Amino acid sequence: MLGQNFLTAFTKLKNERTDNSADFYRRLAEGKKAELNAKTESLERFKLSSQVADLEQQTKSPLEQIRDLEMQKQKATEKIPSYEKTLGNLEGYMAQDQQTVSSTRSGNPRITTLRDQIQRYNDEYVASGYKKAASKQQADNLRRELEMEVKRTTMNEDVGMGATGGTVAESRRDLLSRKLDTEQQLEEARSSVRTIDTEINRLKGSVSGLVSKEATIASYEREIKILGEEYLALTEKLNAADFAAISKSHDQKLQIHEKALAPESPEPSQAPFMTLLAGIATFMMATFVLLGLVYLDNRLLSPFQLQKQTRLPLLEVWNRLSSVKDLDLDRIFHQNDNKKELETFKQLVRNTRYKISAMGDGVRTLLLCSLKPKEGKTLVAVTLAYALSLNNQKVLLLDCNFKNNGITRLPVQSVAPNSGLERILQQSDLDRVFGLKGRLFNHIGGSVDIVGCRADGNSASELLSGKNFRALLTNLQQTYDYVLLECSAMDSHTDTKELSNYADKVVAVLSANNTVAAAEQSNIDFLHRLNDKFAGVILNMTDMRNLS
């Protein structure tokens, strides 16, 4: 019963809303259409009252006429000075016979009549915008008739023939004819200028009136456009509402397919099951995320990552120390420390010393290199030298890092000059490249001496060129059990490749915090090509959790 009441109320409410929506949009559309029609009729009435059919064309024609009249006015104005000058010259020639000229002007009224007619036709031609060919033809005919009349008049006048002879009379008649013709041309030019000015002013007035009408028409058209867009939008909404009203009877109605029955007992709660399911889903998502992060992380965090990224053999793993700024190796190796990281570090260094000693007596010179700077070569070199010296070994640290000579800058103990070492450097012609700095450690077991170098932008092969560096190493091996060489990083220098020929073994120091970029693959390939000469990698600064 409740479901049936709901269906009835829902259907009634839906139909009422659909009908009301259609009626609302219909009223709005009819009102907007009436407003649009009224505005369109207002525009038509304004055009009829203003006698505006094609505003653009009506404005264009007067403007073209004004342009043409301005050009004709300029031509006529340019002729006036020439006519005035010619007329002045003729008047000067004829100044002696003003009586004759005056009598000629007043004695023939036909000339005055012809001039007036010529001026009238010329004004009609100018006012028509130089388009009325009939007026121009009439003016040209009257102008020829005027010329004949002037000649006839001058022929009939007695201009001093009795005293001066026929030749003088003919000359005066010619001057008089030219003067009258020039006066006519001057008067026509001036009259043309006046007529053109009058017509230009008239056309400008008509254009000004059209501009104000254009603004009014533009305002009407803009309002009509807005009303038209609003009417179209309302029409679309009305069509959609009518379509909904038509199709409402065809919509599939809600129906009751099955009547609800009251349960005999409450259903068990699903909350524990849903909670367990959510926990399992969360755990799986977290696991996938962690696995993805581990897979995408290409840092050398552990020996496994080192083998995966580089496939280089591992010599030993050294753990990270909290601070290496004031590292006291004597205290670490001669006292038991409760700090786990120091005890672990000591044992790992001893393992490295054992592996180097197990390489045999033929391994006396070790070259320490790295793929990039700041991977801990100096720390490894100093620590390894100290550990070897504890086994009653004499060790020499030879700084071959000509770009960043960190070993050379270490604080050392001043010792007496070693004449033997200085002689060896001089014999090899390397005393300007290397120099004895002092003793780093000196204890009962052994000692560690340092031979520093000067920082230079040149490569190792350029600095050692022409010098007997191999002989230097051979002589040093007679005094020292181990000679440890540190060179610059491989990412931007070739020193490792150039010095590898002088070493018995090459050891790479890599930091667990760094990644292996694609650009470093060529240097890794070089280490692979060293074959047996490559002793392996010391993975430095490894987290305690990733040692195994």
List the helices and strands and how they pair.
Elements lengths: L1 H49 L4 H39 L4 H10 L1 H19 L5 H24 L4 H4 L1 H82 L23 H26 L6 H8 L3 E6 L9 H6 L5 H18 L7 E5 L7 H13 L4 E7 L18 H9 L6 E9 L4 E7 L6 H5 L4 H11 L2 E6 L7 H5 L5 E7 L9 H9 L4 E9 L6
Parallel strand pairs: 1-8, 2-6, 2-7, 3-5, 3-6, 7-8
Antiparallel strand pairs: 4-5
Give a written overview of the molecule:
This protein is an alpha/beta fold. Helices cover 61% and strands 10% of the residues. It contains 17 helices and eight strands. The protein has helices at 2-50, 55-93, 98-107, 109-127, 133-156, 161-164, 166-247, 271-296, 303-310, 329-334, 340-357, 377-389, 419-427, 460-464, 469-479, 495-499, 521-529, and strands spanning 314-319, 365-369, 394-400, 434-442, 447-453, 482-487, 505-511, 534-542. Strands 1-8-7-2-6-3-5-4 form an eight-stranded mixed sheet, sandwiched between helices. The longest helix is centred in the middle third of the chain and has 82 residues, at 166-247. It is elongated, with a radius of gyration of 59 Å. The chain starts with a helix and ends in a 6-residue tail after the last strand.
